[in-house]
Design goal:
heterodimer; A: about 425 residues; alpha/beta; Aspartate Aminotransferase, domain 1; 2 domains; 4-stranded antiparallel β-sheet; globular; B: about 150 residues; alpha+beta; Sufe protein. Chain: A
């Protein structure tokens, strides 16, 4: 193991606290991740030494702030292997990035007869914006089904082939499902979409911090992600878009910063990325986000992927032995990312999460912003344990002990 | 775990394992559904109102132990009461779960006082009661024939 891993838990100050008298076991990383000291320091350092508004100032501090912000943009482009920093638009996160494409690209390009294709496993943020733009433009929304009673087979690729007709203008799908944990074959899906002339948008919220993400290798047209799920701050994320697409898209939000000329009679827009960054950007968090990228690359994203997947496999094997448990998503050996969602027959997810909290364990219970999927799978809610660089096998062991005790308390088993 | 076992006291576990008055009421003339979309708890309440008295009551649904036990308990408290008494009982229950102040007499309802320490769960505890009040205020429905 590279030395950066040896003390990884020490890098994250938030982990070192007690919850209900127990050491915190933070297993809710799919909701948000903890931040390393380096990211927190970068955030404070910006405000302490380099804070000024960007782009329009001519004084020293403003030029430093602008350099830092644009360096963060370039760093983000390198992080996803985009050719050009102008292909990176900073947003508040995945949800805003997807809304931007739906409203701007979708609003300008979709018409009755067109199809937007998504999947049954999409998070609400990659579902609802498409419902809305379909309603507004008269386009049709269709879903690639998931296969298996527990969606253990992932996307139904045969159905995908039937659904990918020339009417499909955009295929938007998740890289890693935040509920099922399945890792979708992105490059293959993008290739199939290209064959019918459809554009692709990848929701990388759950993948970006957990493995290398290379927009060229994946072959996607748009990619959306959030900083707070990759050891970065909340309130910042990015949209990658191919330059030619972005330059043809009308503005999303408008105002200062994205215009080139404003007259009372009308205004002209700047090119991307500025066209899509109206108002003062979230400068400090963009700078801190760049630090999180450096931190993760210091650990090595292949190593992170291996760590998370190994932990999820370990958890899957241990959970599968609990009586009355139903685990969603890929079976052992399948393409699973760093999370496991499950339901205990005798105990509702809320009760599991409340009890686990008493043991200092942070889990998430509910529908995980996948209401239609949960309904299809016949589950009112599930419990999710999601892992990151600082989680350990010992923590998984503590989770299993807690779950056994919970099952016993409720079921008398 | 003792705070939690307070909350999930035997009463709650008991009502969760052996719910009272569970199932549809064929003679119901008032029905209402409640749900917490954020968590997936669901509750349907069936009333037979005769005059202003709740002659019979049942519930059905799915959800966490607190929501189901609370609904079960609610049906035992409301059976035979007038609409006005039901409203008063709900106010008492709401007070108990939001403040933790339980009445001095030992009662099943007092077991829910512990909910107040877990604010995220208060909606679970009140779901069935809200559905019952909605049923009281709702339009008459024909008795089901299923």
């Amino acid at each position: 193991m590279p030395s950066a891993w040896a003390n990884v838990r020490d890098d994250f100050p938030t982990l070192h606290q007690q919850v209900n008298g127990q050491p915190l076991v933070y297993l809710d990383n799919a909701a948000t991740t903890q931040k390393p000291r380096a990211v927190l320091d970068a955030l404070q350092d910006f405000y302490l030494h380099h804070n000024a508004n960007v782009h329009r100032g001519l004084h020293a501090l403003s030029m430093r702030a602008t350099d830092a912000y644009e360096a963060a943009r370039a760093r983000t482009a390198r992080f996803v292997n985009a050719a050009d920093p102008a292909e990176i638009i900073f947003t508040r996160g995945t949800t805003e990035s997807i809304n931007l494409v739906a409203a701007s690209w979708g609003g300008a390009n979709l018409k009755p007869g067109d199809v937007i294709l998504i999947t049954e496993m999409e998070h609400h943020s990659n579902l609802v914006p498409w419902q809305l733009i379909a309603q507004r433009t008269g386009a049709t929304l269709q879903y690639v089904p998931v296969a298996g009673d527990d969606a253990e087979h992932g996307l139904d690729l045969a159905a995908l082939d039937r659904l990918l007709t020339p009417q499909v203008k955009l295929f938007a799908f998740t890289h890693v499902s935040n509920t099922l944990g399945v890792v979708n074959p992105v490059a293959e899906l993008c290739a199939r979409a290209r064959q019918v002339g459809a554009l692709t948008l990848v929701d990388a919220a759950q993948s970006i911090g957990h493995q290398p993400v290379d927009v060229h290798a994946l072959g996607c047209d748009f990619l959306a992600f959030s900083g707070h799920k990759m050891a970065g701050p909340t309130g910042i994320g990015a949209l990658y878009g191919r330059r030619a697409l972005l330059d043809a898209m009308p503005p999303y939000q408008s105002g200062g910063g994205m215009i080139s000329v404003v007259e009372y009679s009308g205004s002209k827009w700047k090119p991307a990325p500025e066209r899509f960054e109206a108002g003062t950007p979230n400068v400090a968090d963009a700078v801190a986000l760049a630090t999180s990228m450096d931190y993760l690359d210091g650990l090595g994203r292949d190593a992170i992927a291996a760590h998370d997947r190994e932990l999820a496999a370990y958890a899957y094997a241990a959970l599968a032995e609990l009586p009355g448990i139903r685990i969603l998503g890929p079976r052992a050996g399948g393409p699973r990312g760093g999370l496991v969602s499950f339901a205990l027959r005798e105990v509702h997810a809320h009760d599991v999460v409340t009890f686990a909290d008493q043991d200092g364990i942070a889990l998430r219970g509910g529908h995980h912003c996948n209401q239609p999927l949960m309904k299809k799978l016949g589950l009112p809610s599930t419990v999710r344990a999601s892992f990151y660089v600082y989680n350990t096998r010992d923590e998984v062991d503590r989770l299993v002990v807690s779950l056994r005790r919970i099952a016993k308390f409720f079921g008398g088993a | 775990m003792s705070d939690l076992t307070d909350l999930y006291q035997q009463v709650i576990l008991d009502h969760n394992r052996r719910p009272r008055n569970r199932g549809r009421l064929p003679t119901a003339n008032r029905v209402a559904h409640g749900d917490n979309p954020t968590c997936g708890d669901q509750c349907s309440v069936y009333l037979r109102l005769e005059g202003d008295k709740i002659a019979d009551i049942s519930f059905d649904g799915s959800g966490c132990a607190i929501s189901q036990a609370s609904a079960s308990l609610m049906t035992t408290r409301l059976k035979g009461k007038t609409a006005a008494e039901a409203e008063a009982l709900f106010k008492d229950f709401h007070h108990i779960v939001t403040t933790g102040e339980a009445p001095e007499e030992i009662s099943d309802v007092a077991a829910f006082a512990g909910v107040h320490a877990f604010p995220a769960r208060i909606k679970c505890a009140t779901l069935g009661w809200h559905a019952a009040l909605n049923a009281l205020h709702s339009d008459p429905t024909p008795a089901t024939t299923e």
